[in-house]
Specification:
24% of the residues lie in helices and 9% in strands. The longest helix has 16 residues.
Length: 167
Amino acid sequence: MKRTPRGTPVGTDDHRDVIDRCDWVTRDGLCRFALERPEHDPAFTAARLEDDYKCPFLDDDTAWTDCAHVRVTDRSRSCVRCGLEDRPMAHDPSATSLLHDHHVAYPEADDIEVTVRVCRWCHAKIHRQGVRLDDDAEPDPEAVAELERRIRAEREETFTPASEDRD
């Protein structure tokens, strides 16, 4: 399993396995990395300029993993490992999210940045026990209990329209 420079497991043998779509790609298929950070890789930028900044990795015969500057941020609302759904507590600022961002690549290792969403319980297991992101996993019993507690709190919450709120 891949490890950080400090020896902590990151949850996958190859962080490129979790890449879906690069954050740098615009809706028009352009590479924002080359447009916004030309000084970071002049040769890469020059190649993109020759092709009107088109991302070469949108084609079916190439893969995101071939790009040296791919950056992926998972914005899902559930854990990529066990599937636990996030349940934010909007009216409780002290409540922490059930999901954490987990970085599966580090700048010291290469130039690729990949961030996935995992629940707090899977995140701890990845770092403490070395479990993998692609393990067949069920949500931790504590995680399920916390999710159910949040759902109950939501259902018990009362709503008073502003027109009726006299305070």
